[in-house]
Amino acid sequence: MAARPSMDAGKGLVFRREVEPRDVELVRSMAESTGFFSAEEVLIAEELVRERLDKGPESGYHFIFAQECPGAGPNGPMRTGCTGSTVQGMCTGRTVQTGGSGRAGEIVGYTCYGPVPGTQSSFDLYWIVVRQDRRGGGIGRALLAQTEEAVASLGGSRLYAETSSRELYDPTRRFYRSAGFRQEAFLENFYAPGDGKIIFVKEIA
Predict the structure, then answer these.
(1) Are 22 and 30 in contact (CB under 8 A)?
(2) 180-186 contacts at long range (C-beta below 8 A, 24 or more positions apart)
(3) Residue 174 class from Cβ within 10 Å (0-12 exposed, 13-18 middle, 19+ buried)?
(4) In this predicted structure, what is the pLDDT of residue 133?
(5) Measuring CA to CA, which residue among 111, 117, 169, 180 is closest to residue 140?
(6) What confidence score (pLDDT) does residue 137 get?
(7) Where are the alpha helices (DSSP H) in 56-169?
(8) Cβ count within 10 A of residue 87
């Protein structure tokens, strides 16, 4: 069975899988905020959203967006009665006591994933991004758990993730390992001289 978000990781968040036109700008803004991606990579992230909008599921790209419920935020504990459901993208949970920034309903992270063409049950995690000012709060873990559940529901059994070998991406590699991924391959100098590609995999089923 696919992992589910822990109470702490998922608290104060709702998730949506429908892609909307506004997500092109949201994805660009979130990717740029991290400082991890080049301008070319940010353009690729935007293009995947457009592909999904144009072609729907036939594009092979699936998305999950994490949205804060009212009262959630970096400036205080999350104290909401969020039910984890959405109506037209808005949190349906009743705010019991606001303890955050008051910026209700903000999109704070997303994943993009899809089946690997020509395989029976392998999926790629193309992108996992958490907005820079929300990193370290369990949003990435919650998004990953939601993604694993979605992959399993689509018949996936293995989830692959790729990242750079550069020192900048040490936190990314630690994140994958702590989430149960193992290193499957290392391609030396793949991206550039001195910048290899590390491929991780996690069994989902």
Answers:
(1) no
(2) 180/3, 184/160
(3) exposed
(4) 87
(5) 111
(6) 87
(7) 139-153
(8) 8
What residues does each domain of the chain span? Answer: 7-203
How many Cα atoms within 13 Å fall on the side-chain side of residue 152? Answer: 14
Bridge partners, residue 16, by sequence: 65
Segments in the chain below pLDDT 70: 1-11, 70-104, 205
All residues at 6 or more sequence positions from 127 whose CB lies less than 8 Å from its CB, including other chains = 31, 45, 48, 110, 111, 112
Instruction: Give the pairing type, strands 158-164 and 122-130.
Output: parallel
| Cα–Cα distances in angstroms (integers) from residue 37 to residues 9, 49, 72, 122, 142, in the given order | 25, 16, 27, 25, 22
Q: Give CA–CA dist 37/34, Å, rounded.
A: 7
CATH topology of domain 7-203: Aminopeptidase (3.40.630)
44: CB partners within 8 A, 6+ apart: none
Q: What is the pLDDT of residues 128-170, one digit of tens each?
A: 999 988 888 899 999 999 999 999 999 999 999 999 999 999 9
Any idea how long the chain is?
Answer: 205
Task: List 159's β-bridge partners, or say none.
Answer: 123, 202
Strand segments (E) across the chain = 13-16, 62-68, 80-81, 86-87, 90-91, 94-95, 107-115, 122-130, 158-164, 182-192, 195-203
- The token pair at 68 is 């804060």
Longest dimension (CA), the chain: 53
